[in-house]
Specification:
heterodimer, A: about 40% helix, B: globular
């Protein structure tokens, strides 16, 4: 039996990392397991490896990003890859080139892996159909942000030792959030009970079909939760009136010490960043080193992306 | 032209209550001379060309009320010549062309252009529609009277909806004076803004913004309320949801006079078919849930829905090889229109006569044109259909200039084998 227990996948079942939806539980466990060694490495003084030496990694960012882009860049470099980051806000896409044409051009440069972030849902799927190398989705529209969900899972596992059986609340702007969607898939797969908390205007239609419980009240939704994930209010994606004001939003859906009382005593606070302090989260709570693991999430992000680059790069 | 005779066919002509084995004689001018069970082998005129249909279906040529041509402005997507080939291969002999061209069909000189091009390049009957408002701005109405005199059969902003209720009421009031047919595409833009597919589970999963079905129903209900005040000839171009069906059923029961269509796409596909961001299934109105589809099929069977349209909207590959948000809306469909409709018969959802009525008699009646029936004296526009022929849709085999079929690789039962327009055999398949 001991032998059986040790049996674990050593290879990812997918060619691309487009979403958590496409992964199996053993894929996820493999990525999480692999990343643990990188967590240690990233804390050491010599961080450079040569696993991806000679490989070319292209970061294709059509949307502004600070932490995800730098995280992927650092991850690639620490593995020894040649990393090229392209900020597509000021390139040929502005001259009318389509995503597919851009993809074909880059493909001709023989990259070994492409990381893409795009404002349209499904952009990474489209890219994956057209290039010869693995594609990693670093966020597409409102659909998925798989590495964020993986780093969140790693953060939880390191702190809580497991995900199975935990009660996890995701609060805030679910409607516009790819982070929420990826987390829902992943946490469900690993056996957590997922609560979504948002005003009805920010709750996607029929989301309960993804196997979650929905709440419009913070105190009810947070009851006995082990983890509280806060989401950023994505004002840049909001056209039309979703909320009366950020003041009222904070009153009902902002995470404050008194609302947090309803969660378990040892509940952890997470946030994918960037934060709107005083809008979705109390500023002191965000910085509370006993409760908030927001900085750890960033740290885990590099390790998770190193694991993904290593496992998906052929 | 020689006289032609088709014998031994199963004739279905809902307009004339014909459903029998018989024949049809086309005279030297291309008109229908005789029809029915009396026309048989024994009384063939001398020198006539004879075609033995071997019990295959003989139908009036299909009348398609919603077709995008591409001339002028989008000739690279479809022109009259390619459209004709595509239409004929699907048994379609008359189409209403949508005015969403570049420039749009909103004045008399544009109508002249379309009619001339249609006459010179097209081998099917083109019935042009014009816009409701100038440059489709939703504000200034077009010259319904003058345009109608020039041969415009219907007025519609095509892919667009009149949002302003006052403008819509004026349009209806004005149209009633000159008995002009108004066709509305029902979509409230405030509710559908930024929407790409049906608002529901699939839109949530794919992270695509949804178009709620209420966006359609609210315009339908508004227009039907206006219709109480201003009785004009009013037609809803295509509906997509069970909620709209309920609104239409209720209004028809109350005795209101209007008609309504549905796209063959909404009868045959649902939102699940979008799969992994298939842009060929980005449609307007969007594909909705299976429950909606079933309700539409039921409403067709009950006669709540009067017309089926192909909503043929050719789009070149460049317009579709984009992200879902960026891709053009619409699907090519005129060639597969009739075979796909026959699927509803084969799976016992709707009886054959009702389907054929919705594609021949009903649209012709709404448009007020002498088409869609096999009346003696009419132009011999007809098609012969092998009801059980099995085949598979392949985009490489389409005649249309654009290949954006939403049903690539779908297995079909039933295929057009011959199409006649004005008595001439213009399409033949072995």
């Amino acid at each position: 039996m001991a032998v059986l227990k040790k049996l674990q996948a050593v290879k990812i079942s997918q060619n691309h990392l487009l979403g958590i939806q496409n992964l199996s539980v053993s894929d996820i466990n493999l990525i999480l397991e692999e990343s643990k060694s990188f967590v240690k490495l990233n804390k050491s003084s010599s961080k450079k490896l040569d696993i991806l030496r000679g490989k070319t990694q292209i970061n294709l960012f059509f949307e502004p990003s600070t932490r995800t882009q730098s995280s992927f860049e650092l991850a690639g470099k620490r593995l020894g890859a040649d990393v090229m980051s392209m900020n597509m806000n000021n390139s040929s896409i502005k001259k009318g080139e389509t995503l597919i044409d851009t993809a074909m051009t880059l493909n001709a440069m023989n990259p070994d892996i492409i990381v893409i972030r795009h404002q349209d849902s499904g952009a990474s799927n489209l890219l994956a159909q057209k290039v010869n190398c693995p594609v990693i989705n670093a966020g597409d529209g409102k659909r998925e942000h798989p590495t964020q969900a993986l780093l969140d899972a790693l953060t939880i596992i390191i702190r809580k030792g497991k995900i199975n059986g935990l009660r996890i609340a995701i609060c805030g702007d679910i409607l516009h959030s790819r982070v929420a969607r990826s987390n829902i898939y992943l946490l469900n797969m690993l056996g957590a009970e997922v609560h979504l908390i948002a005003p009805s205007t920010l709750m996607p239609k029929k989301i309960e079909r993804l196997g979650v419980k929905i709440f419009n009240n913070m105190n009810e939704g947070l009851k006995d939760c082990d983890i509280v994930m806060m989401l950023r209010l994505q004002n840049e994606r909001m056209h039309g009136s979703f909320l009366a004001s950020t003041r009222e939003y904070y009153e009902y859906f902002g995470l404050t010490p008194d609302k947090l009382e309803f969660a378990k005593n040892d509940a952890l606070i997470m946030h994918p960043g960037p934060m709107n302090r005083g809008v979705e989260i109390d500023t002191n709570l965000a910085d509370d080193i006993n409760k908030s693991v927001i900085k750890e999430q960033v740290e885990m992000g590099v390790a998770i992306r190193m694991a993904c680059l290593k496992l998906f790069c052929k | 032209m020689k006289e032609k005779i088709i014998i031994n066919a199963k004739i279905i002509d809902p307009k004339n209550n014909l459903n029998e084995i018989g024949g049809l004689i086309i005279d030297v001018k291309g008109k229908i001379k005789a029809i029915g069970k009396k026309v048989k082998n024994s009384n063939i005129p001398k020198n006539a060309e004879v075609f033995d249909a071997k019990k295959k279906l003989l139908l009036p040529g299909i009348v398609d009320m919603r077709v995008f041509v591409g001339e002028p402005g989008f000739e690279y997507k479809e022109n009259f010549k390619t459209l004709s080939k595509a239409a004929l291969s699907g048994g379609v002999t008359s189409v209403v062309s949508m005015p969403n061209t570049s420039p749009v069909i909103d004045n008399v000189s544009m109508v002249d252009f379309i009619k001339r091009r249609g006459r010179d390049k097209s081998s099917i009957n083109i019935f042009p529609s014009a816009t409701l408002t100038k440059n489709i701005d939703g504000k200034r109405m077009t010259e319904f009277g003058l345009l109608k005199k020039k041969g415009i059969v219907a007025f519609t902003d095509g892919v667009k909806t009149i949002q302003d209720s006052q403008i819509m009421s004026r349009i209806m009031e004005y149209a009633s004076d000159i008995n002009a047919l108004i066709i509305q595409h029902a979509e409230d833009y405030n509710l559908s803004e930024g929407g790409l597919i049906n608002d529901g589970e699939i839109s949530t999963r794919l992270g695509l913004q949804g178009i709620p079905s209420i966006a359609e129903k609210i315009i339908v209900e508004r227009d039907l309320s206006l219709l109480e005040e201003y009785q004009c000839k009013y037609h809803i171009s295509q509906i997509s949801s069970s909620k709209t069906v309920a609104a239409i059923r209720k209004n028809k029961k109350e005795g209101k006079k209007f008609s309504c269509g549905v796209s063959i796409n909404n009868l045959s596909l649902n939102e699940n078919d979008i799969g992994d961001f298939k842009t060929f299934l980005k449609l307007s109105p969007p594909l909705r849930t299976e429950e909606d589809r079933v309700e539409l099929v039921k409403a067709l069977g009950e006669g709540i829905i009067d017309v089926i349209v192909s909503d043929h909207k050719p789009e070149d590959e460049e317009s579709k090889r984009l992200t879902f948000a960026q891709a053009a809306t619409g699907a090519s469909g005129i060639e597969t229109f009739l075979p796909l409709a026959l699927e509803l018969f084969h799976n016992k959802s709707v009886d054959l006569e009702t389907i054929i009525s919705a594609m021949t008699k009903n649209p012709a009646k709404i448009l007020g044109i002498k088409k869609g029936s096999l009346e003696i004296g009419n132009d011999a526009d007809l098609c012969i259909v092998d009801l059980n022929k099995a085949w598979k849709v392949k985009k490489t085999e389409l005649f249309s200039k654009s290949k954006n079929t939403p049903i690539e690789d779908r297995k079909m039962q039933g295929q057009v084998i011959r199409t006649y327009v004005g008595g001439e055999l213009l399409f033949k398949r072995n």
